[in-house]
Known about the structure:
Elements: E1 7-12, E2 15-20, E3 26-31, E4 47-50, E5 57-64, E6 71-75, E7 86-90, E8 106-112, E9 116-120, E10 126-130, E11 137-142, E12 149-153, H1 156-167, H2 189-209
Amino acid sequence: MNTERMKVRIQLDPFRIEVDDPRGRRVCGIGGPEKNHFAQWDAINTGICRTLDTGAPRACESFDLAPQECIYGLGEKFSQLNKAGQTIDLVMDDGLGVLSPRSYKNIPFYVSTHGYGVFFNHTSLMTFWVGSSSAADVRVAAEDEFLDYYVFVGDIRTVLSRYTDLTGKSVMLPAHGQCRSGAPSLDSIDGARCVTSTWLNTRMWTMREA
């Protein structure tokens, strides 16, 4: 399938999708045979697997990961911004600090510097092996019996715009809400100004509403 912006090839056996730009540069490769010819299950092709111990379902997918490619996203994380080389569990848990993988703002969405992004329409527990299981793949598993995701093609700004077109865009906060979240340090003049300005604006807003 060819359009002005991309070329898409779909292979059925084994199932694989390849997306190229108009110049023939590979933007995204999805699924396909394992790249490790020793077949060690370092990456799993598109489909539903089951665990050996309990038979619980796992919806699996893999995306090509090129050398020097950067992967950003997956919500609030306290590790390096580029997730390449990391294993990320999307588990809602109180962070209790900023020194562990625990977090409660998990988002099953990432964007790649190769020109695409992926949003998984899942609310189950998920794991992303970003080059940590297979160095040539972003491997994904969701604790579900179905696989539902969207692929957006374009630069990072375009991908983010299309992602929020789908999931919804945030609204602009009123002036009295545009202050740094949390308790600012009163040891600085800027911190004191922030608290004072927020309190005054909130007070004026309340009086106007009344």
